[in-house]
Design goal:
The chain is an alpha+beta fold. Helices cover 23% and strands 27% of the residues. The chain contains three helices and 13 strands; from the N terminus they run H-E-E-E-E-H-E-E-E-E-E-H-E-E-E-E. The strands form two sheets. Strands 1, 2, 3, 4, 5, 6, 9, 10, 11 and 13 form a ten-stranded mixed beta sheet that branches. A three-stranded antiparallel beta sheet has the order 8-7-12, with no helix packed on it. Strand 1 (42-45) and strand 2 (50-57) form a beta hairpin. The longest helix is centred in the N-terminal third of the chain and has 33 residues, at 2-34. The N and C termini lie far apart (66 Å).
């Protein structure tokens, strides 16, 4: 009996150690899946209706104006935006649809100047020092503060594929960007700069959260 008890105890100890090891591995894998990297730059949360992507700050546009907020690094506008990302427009488009956003698809390259983008409203936050900062608090237009950029899920996937600009997020209404601002109409122009007093320094990683209203 004593021998059997020892054997049973030994087996139980092995199972306990094995279970802990499996649990640790699972936790590590979960942590990896929840972290953003250059090779895994975007993730979505259906419950929170959010898409989060990893970007890199381009300090050039703290002083030079642009109309591009986020552009994929491989796009023709890859070096013309305040933030660069390895996430593709298609990834952002698909993930926004997964969390319930509906594209407006109301603009084209032939739209009249001043036309406003439509689609589901999107709140855009920059995660700075662990806190969410509204995008309009981190940028200015014509050297003046902004009140509300009113971002919309324009969609524009077909035009985006054709243009190959890599545009993900634009300040003004855009027929190419996946998301863009409805406050300023199409062809408003390059009048936006990032605030160096708010944003991290050039070359820093910055998480951006797009939340469907």
């Amino acid at each position: 009996m004593k021998k059997n008890s020892l054997i049973i105890g030994f087996i139980a100890s092995l199972l306990l150690v094995f279970g802990i090891a499996l649990g640790t591995t699972a936790n590590v894998q979960a942590a990896k899946s929840n972290s953003l990297t250059s090779s895994h730059p975007v993730q979505y949360n259906k419950k929170k209706k959010e898409v989060t992507l990893l970007t890199t700050v381009n300090g050039t546009y703290f002083t030079q104006p642009t109309r591009h907020v986020i552009v994929n690094v491989d796009g023709s506008n890859g070096n013309k935006s305040l933030l660069k990302t390895n996430a593709t427009p298609k990834q952002i488009y698909n993930d926004l649809k997964k969390v319930g956003a509906k594209p407006g698809d109301n603009l084209s390259m032939k739209s009249k100047a001043g036309s406003k983008v439509k689609g589901s409203s999107i709140k855009v936050f920059f995660v700075i020092n662990g806190k969410r900062v509204r995008a309009d608090k981190a940028v200015q237009v014509n050297n003046k503060n902004l009140k509300k950029l009113d971002f919309k899920f324009g969609g524009n996937m077909k035009t985006n594929n054709k243009a190959k600009t890599g545009c993900v997020l634009c300040f003004d209404s855009c027929p190419v960007g996946i998301v863009s601002g409805a406050k300023y109409g199409y062809k408003y122009g390059e009048h936006f700069t990032g605030k160096s007093s708010v944003l991290p320094k050039d070359g820093s990683n910055l998480k951006v959260v797009m939340q469907v209203k």
